[in-house]
Amino acid sequence: MKVLVPIKRVIDYNVKVRVKPDNSNVDLTNVKMAINPFCEIAVEEAVRLKEAGVATEVVAVSIGDKSCQEQLRTALALGADRAIQIDTDQNLDSLNVAKLLQKVVEEEQPQIVLLGKQSIDSDNNQTGQMLGALTGMPQGTFASEVKVDGDKVSVTREVDGGLQTVALNLPAIVTTDLRLNEPRYASLPNIMKAKRKPLDVKSAADFGIDLSSRTNLIKVTPPAERQAGIVVETVGELVEKLKNEAKVI
């Protein structure tokens, strides 16, 4: 069984994001980039399926310019067997990403597409669902547990107020949530081995898809800075400030 894992290159979650002075976008100058954390969970789950003897091949795919090969090599070091870069320098919205992934799915014919439920930069939570609509494959989103049994996959989803378990016929799409697993660290030997694993590059233009965006980025602004707190001397002073300044009591 083949597992396809789309991954996205995003700003490392440990980095404090800066906004450009003209508010046109996020400043990526000299910023450390990494695999989107939800995508890294998807890679880990795919590798675990292979280690359990369920999957036979794990294929990582990323869309972007040559720089995203760094994240693909990381996925290979974590256990993916081979990687595909869909080369483009365009900023793609979720629908265009889903359309390109649809073409990859048609070529690769995976039994499971495992991808993060959302990316930490755009927070759209759309690509998995759009890919499901385009391919006609059933989808289990926000997975906190994945079990494959024959030609079905059981996905436990985190929903408001509890858990929901759905059974999907394969091939299927599964998007991963935070509590599905804890990704491993890539060991030095595996990082060295990853350099020799196959990484194919395909041009996005060759897929014949209209990649013009249907959304425009108008403005990016940083969150409002929090004001410093104050120290009160007595409970009475605290009550007075809550009542007359904060007006919460």
List keywords for this structure.
single chain; 249 residues; alpha/beta; 9-stranded mixed β-sheet; 6 helices; 27% strand
Shape: globular
Strand content is 25-35%
Sequence of secondary-structure elements: EEEHEHEHEHEEEEHEH
Radius of gyration: 21 Å
How many strand elements? 11
Helix content: 25-40%
Distance between the termini: 61 Å
Unreliable spans: none
Structural class: alpha/beta
Main sheet: strands, sense, barrel: 9 strands, mixed
Instruction: Trace the largest sheet across and list its strands.
Output: 9-8-7-10-6-1-4-5-11
What number is the mean pLDDT?
A: 92
What would you note in describing this structure?
This protein is an alpha/beta fold. Helix 2 crosses helix 5 (188-194) and helix 3 (94-108) packs across helix 4 (127-135). The protein contains 6 helices and 11 strands. Helix content is 27%, strand content 27%. A hairpin with a 2-residue loop joins strand 8 (152-159) and strand 9 (162-169).
